[in-house]
Design goal:
elongated; alpha+beta; about 60% helix
Length: about 80
Amino acid sequence: MIQYIVNGIGEKTAVLISIEEWKKFESYFHIFIENLKVDTEPKNTLASAAQALLGDYLHDEELTTFNTLDIENFYESR
């Protein structure tokens, strides 16, 4: 069986492979794709949560109380 593999820039490479090997590759490929989907979901969830709380972190006095210390000069005691 001849299969064509396409790389990231659209180039095709012909590969001679048995049907059994192709089925094994295809099953591994589907597992790989599913793992990619699972790995990206928490990042999107965390980014959405951070975006939703951005206003609080910028304007909520309980969260920004110590920001006034950002402009203070601190010197190490000797």
